[in-house]
Amino acid sequence: MAEPMSALRNVYAPRPQDQRCALGSVKSNMGHLDTAAGIAGLLKTVLAVSRGQIPPLLNFHTPNPALKLEESPFTIPVSAQAWQDEMRYAGVSSFGIGGTNCHMIVASLPDALNARLPNTDSGRKSTALLLSAASDSALRRLATDYAGALRENADASSLAFTALHARRLDLPLPPGGAIKP
User: Fold this and answer.
1) pLDDT, tens digit, for every residue of 71-109?
2) What domains can you pick out in the chain, each with its CATH number?
3) Contacts from 41-49 at CB under 8 Å and sequence distance 24+?
4) CA distance 72 to 116
5) Keyword annotations for this protein (predicted)?
6) How far is 160 from 180, CA to CA, in rounded Å?
């Protein structure tokens, strides 16, 4: 245990005492999920980063003294904490039993990119939903799918963000459309 902790201390130190790196695990919430452990950890981390809240490590009381956490740049949160930084970063590690190892860095969306949407007369936010498809029939299917998701109370801002950033908008039919509150 000494070598890994020493390596982590070298990477994350020196840090001011008020900027210690919080450690967490999804296992305290759900147990070990075997093949789903990595995605569960990623989801917990994305939620923490996007909400600006560092969740507590459930059922944690006393650290193993061999870790010497008090001499490290790390802390284990025992209660929810507000994330102090405007830009929030978190790392997620997953080590598969089959030998697949992964480490991901998750970052918050910068405020400059977090568009402020105008409010409508009813107080609800207006959202532009950009759609594009390779054919008229494909565009109609896509619009029908989005309309169905919205009827089931999907978050309009999330749908619009995904349509803009995760779908191709350079297809033959021009993008267009709007979600009306």
Assistant:
1) 888 899 999 999 888 889 999 988 877 777 888 899 987
2) 2-107 (3.40.47.10), 127-179 (no CATH)
3) 41/92, 41/93, 41/94, 42/92, 42/94, 42/104, 42/106, 45/90, 45/92, 45/106, 46/106, 48/24, 48/83, 48/90, 49/83, 49/88, 49/89, 49/90, 49/106, 49/107, 49/108
4) 39
5) Phosphopantetheine, Phosphoprotein
6) 12
